[in-house]
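pls design
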């Protein structure tokens, strides 16, 4: 069902969208969602940095206790992040919203799976000619990546904390790489979210917020992707950031 409100004028590019001014109501929604996600990311990042630093200083016991905490903090970040991405997709499918979307850059990911997904996304962006399909594909790719990275990060952090690994050095490298790529997904999602709000008719804002609330509820039965963290001091530059 299409909303009868006229669709706002979309910028010429994602960079135009990022620099654009949002009306007060949309700005409030944007700021609230981004603040929630950033707060969760900072808690995860600081805790992981502490665990890595303790390991570097030669305190293995304390480092394992610290990394065990990051598993729950990862969930606090990825659950609402995946929910926001699902809401963007569901609303765009239902109402025909047509935001701008830029291809993912493999250089912004450390893990092989993230780089592979980004390369595939870039290739398909040249095949999917409509702006709407490009947006939907990018959001779907980001959601899959967030779900998979969350699962991998939490399993690795739990195994480290419980001593269930024969190669702890690799496991520490894995959680650090997953953390980095989760940060990249977060930055991409924030930029995608801004472009979505630029294209969203004012009259659909309430319906979208309801979709965000619904999609952000725990979905443990959907943790595995049907297809198929960065240190806080290292921030990936995305779009207009």
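designed seq:
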């Amino acid at each position: 069902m299409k909303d009868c409100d006229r669709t706002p004028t979309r910028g010429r590019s994602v960079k135009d969208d990022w620099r654009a001014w949002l009306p007060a109501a949309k700005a409030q929604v944007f700021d609230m969602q981004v603040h929630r996600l950033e707060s969760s990311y900072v808690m995860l990042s600081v805790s992981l940095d502490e665990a890595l630093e303790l390991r570097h200083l030669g305190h293995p016991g304390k480092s394992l206790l610290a990394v065990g905490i990051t598993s729950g903090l990862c969930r606090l970040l990825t659950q609402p992040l995946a929910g926001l991405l699902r809401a963007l997709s569901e609303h765009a499918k239902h109402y025909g919203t047509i935001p701008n979307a830029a291809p993912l850059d493999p250089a912004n990911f450390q893990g092989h799976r993230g780089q592979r997904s980004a390369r595939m996304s870039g290739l398909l962006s040249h095949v999917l000619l409509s702006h709407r399909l490009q947006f939907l594909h990018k959001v779907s790719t980001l959601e899959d990546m967030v779900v998979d990275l969350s699962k991998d990060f939490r399993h690795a952090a739990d195994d480290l904390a419980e001593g269930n690994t024969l190669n702890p050095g690799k496991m520490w490298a894995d959680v650090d790489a997953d953390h980095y790529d989760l940060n990249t997904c977060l930055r991409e999602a924030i930029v995608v979210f801004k472009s979505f709000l630029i294209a969203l008719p004012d009259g659909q804002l309430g319906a979208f917020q309801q979709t965000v609330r619904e999609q952000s509820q725990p979905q443990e039965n959907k943790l595995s992707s049907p297809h198929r963290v960065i240190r806080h001091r290292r921030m990936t530059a995305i779009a207009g950031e």
